[in-house]
């Protein structure tokens, strides 16, 4: 069962500031894109039909600590780990690694908590709901490692 997921990215010019360093909100974009790919790897999506309703995952908490600058054209690997799985929410830890270095350098560490909600197809109103069994059964909490410092 998946508890971790990894995805490679390249720092694009549009992600950088005038100094060629990745602008800070783009770390959240890298985390989000990796989360979406994780859900696709489970056969789903971040927004998907579930019978008569639609399921979504709004974020209720995000944070990021920056350790080293990321530069235009650098390749990075974003590592997603499931820190906590509750009946209606998932908390992920993200590690953004500069992979051209040996050993890789931790450039940023972040986390995100997303709540599973059902959305009324007519009004769009959201209500927290249990994670569907077909998703929850595929996810487990990752073991902790020294990277969580």
The run of helices and strands is EHEEEEEEEEH
- From the spread of the alpha carbons, the general shape counts as globular
Distance between the termini: 25 Å
- What's the alpha carbon Rg, rounded to whole Å? 16 Å
CATH superfamily: Hotdog Thioesterase
Q: How many domains would you count in the coordinates?
A: 1
CATH architecture: Roll
Chain-averaged pLDDT? 92
Runs in which pLDDT lies below 50 for 5 or more consecutive residues are none
CATH top level? Answer: Alpha Beta
In total, the number of strands is 9
Oligomer: single chain
- Count of runs of 4 or more consecutive helical residues: 2
- Structural class determined from secondary elements: mainly beta
Helix content: 10-25%
Taking the sheet with the most strands, its summary is: 5 strands, antiparallel
Strand order of the largest sheet: 1-5-6-7-4
CATH topology annotation: Thiol Ester Dehydrase, Chain A
Give a quick set of tags describing it.
mainly beta; five-stranded antiparallel beta sheet; four-stranded antiparallel beta sheet; Thiol Ester Dehydrase, Chain A; 149 residues; single chain; 9 strands
Descriptive report:
With 149 residues, the protein is mostly beta strands. It has helices spanning 25-41, 133-136; strands spanning 4-10, 48-50, 53-56, 59-66, 75-85, 89-98, 105-115, 117-119, 126-128. It has one domain: Roll (Thiol Ester Dehydrase, Chain A), CATH 3.10.129.10. The chain is built from two helices and nine strands. The longest helix is centred in the first third of the chain and has 17 residues, at 25-41.
């Amino acid at each position: 069962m998946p508890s971790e997921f990894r995805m490679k990215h390249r720092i694009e010019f549009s992600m950088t500031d005038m100094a060629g360093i990745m602008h800070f909100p783009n770390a959240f974009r890298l985390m989000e894109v990796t989360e979406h790919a994780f859900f696709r790897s489970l056969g789903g999506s971040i927004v998907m039909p579930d019978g008569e309703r639609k399921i979504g995952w709004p974020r209720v908490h995000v944070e990021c600590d920056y350790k080293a600058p990321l530069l235009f054209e650098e390749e990075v690997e974003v590592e997603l780990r499931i820190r906590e799985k509750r009946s209606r929410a998932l908390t992920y830890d993200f590690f953004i690694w500069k992979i051209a270095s040996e050993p890789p350098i931790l450039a940023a560490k972040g986390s995100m908590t997303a709540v599973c909600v059902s959305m009324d197809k007519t009004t769009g109103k959201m209500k927290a709901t249990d994670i569907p069994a077909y998703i929850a059964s595929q996810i487990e909490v990752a073991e902790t490692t020294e990277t969580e410092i």
